[in-house]
Amino acid sequence: MTRIRRRGDAAFDRSVNAFLITVLLVTLLPLVYVVSVSLTPLGETNTLLPLRVSLNAYAELLKQPALLRALGVSVFLTVTGVLLSMLLTVATAYPLSRADLPGRKFLTGMILFTFLFNAGLIPLYLVVRDLHLVDTYWALLLHGAVSVYNLLVMKNFFQNLPESLEEAAKIDGANDLQVLWHIVLPLSKPILLTVGLFYAVTQWNSFFEPLLYLSDSKMMPLPVVLRDILTGLNSADYVDAAATTTAPPDALKMAAVVLTTLPMLLVYPWIQRYFTSGTLSGGVKG
Questions:
Q1: What is the pLDDT of residues 143-160, one digit of tens each?
Q2: Could you tell me which residue ranges the ABC transmembrane type-1 domain spans (predicted)?
Q3: Nearest to 144 by CA among 210, 60, 54
């Protein structure tokens, strides 16, 4: 009976491994193809594994001032947006995690209400317009600066921290701000990095909001510029016609895709070890 069960477990494990390998291949193949096409030299046919490798497409793209300007805009929006969002999220989540906060359940309920129901696109645009934020980066930074999901995950993480640490700090004379800075935040590294990654990915991939609130093409971030390159819209502003003499058009487009996704691909492995513990610890309590 035990031998039959072991055979069943082994067959189940093989099925799970085969399924996961299939999912892995389906996920990786498009990425491998994009990288391969971006490395294809002029005159070669696009294949999954090119016979010769050329970096001309990347060199041509990195010489374009408009693309470099868009890259700088995306970096600025991502760094500034993450700092602003983390400041507001921590400042809101920590008080809500304290059991002695007056009206705590009401405030949490009001915040949760905005998560389930929102006013919609047109009222939001009218508010941004009346605040004179259209055609400014503040429209992108303040819009969605605090995510309710991230706020609740961080609040739950703070609630799971031992209360004895806070009580010991207050006995030593620390106030709430000192407890937050010297006790809570150093112990909250996993959730801070996890939520920071969420905000960074959202801000880096922001596409619709710049189209809605910005009209100057010089203010557009990298995803909008990438759309223009891929669709051929205003591509002359970003890709010099002479570039086609050293790299094929498809390689230029795929190189733009790689340059757009590369920063997040480099950041994620560094944060990955904190990702699971931060998400699970923040999601234990409702």
A1: 788 999 999 989 988 888
A2: 71-271
A3: 210
